[in-house]
Amino acid sequence: MVTFLFEAPGIHCRTLDPGEEDLLAAAARLDQAVWGAVGQDAGTFAARATNGFVIAAFQDETLVGTLSCLRRRFDPVLRTREDPGHPYATWDGITGRGRFDTAEPDGDALFCVAVTSARAVPRPFPAVPEGSHPALDLARALVSGRDAHNLAVRKTAQALARACASIHVPRDEVMRFHGRAKGKGILEGARIVAVLPEGRPEDLPAMGYNVVMAYPDLPASFPACVRLDHGPTIGEALILAAAALASRLGVRVAAPYSRPAGFRRALVQALCDVSLASSSTDPLVQAAREFVGPQDPAPDPAAQAGGVE
């Protein structure tokens, strides 16, 4: 059954019914276009609509975003801090490999596992300077994704991510999005509950990390369909729709099972800064510098060519 959850000028959100095959296929195409290698196919979206929920955002009847969510118990999330083998500690474990056959009808949390917007534009990696330097070698490996198929490089990349995660994760663009209030304060911002280093190893931009967050417990008065007099972003509309769905279900918390989408890009930039002996006081650059260890700065190609007097 289709349920309308959000309305604002120029945009509305509703659930997709398992029988809406064309829309579910369109949702899958959008997911693959935005998420690349970790995007999901139409069969997976059909399973999500059957076992959980697929919320779709429309502008002028055009599908412009989706959010997939399922009910599960919230308390086991807290165990992942001490037990990396817990099923909740991986994206596959909590979502049943994305098909939501792990959903619990009596779950007290609505886990939001994928917010996808047609407006999303991937940011490119920073240009890696020429030259020989350990920081530059590692930066090039991260840009090329060599850690995906080279064990030695993977171990180094994972160690770098561990050294920098506590700095980057709270300030990642996705965490900051969830941390902001939505709908002019209708829904307060989410807090970080658990950081999962091996949540989804194939998610290279996020360095394999997942981050579980939680919006504040929903009051009984939270609307079953949010209506605003202004048009929010697609992502904000989808989150408010998820909160409305949670309210309808009597679920106390909407919990993004998210990812630090800019982690790899930030590490590449930090490594580039380290190679140039940057005087940056950015904690991420300092952490990367400590990881690489004391080195001579990379030669300046312009200076080598006589371009600097």
User: From N to C, what is the helix and strand string?
Assistant: EEHHEEHHEHHHEEEHEHHH
Strands of the biggest beta sheet: in what spatial order? Answer: 6-7-9-5-4-3-2-1-8
State the major sheet: 9 strands, mixed
The pLDDT mean sits at: 92
- How many domains is the backbone divided into? 2
- CATH fold naming of the largest domain: Aminopeptidase
Low-confidence runs of at least 5 consecutive residues: 303-309
Number of helices: 11
* Tertiary shape: elongated
Architecture (CATH level 2) name of the largest domain: 3-Layer(aba) Sandwich
Fraction in beta strands: 15-25%
User: How far is the first residue's CA from the last residue's CA?
Assistant: 72 Å
Share in helix: 25-40%
Radius of gyration: 21 Å
Work out the number of β strands: 9
Describe the protein.
The protein has 309 residues and is an alpha+beta fold. 37% of the residues lie in helices and 18% in strands. It has helices at residues 21-35, 42-51, 76-79, 91-95, 134-144, 151-168, 173-179, 234-249, 263-275, 283-292, 301-304; strands at 4-8, 11-15, 53-59, 62-72, 109-117, 191-196, 210-214, 226-227, 253-258. Strands 6-7-9-5-4-3-2-1-8 form a 9-stranded mixed sheet.
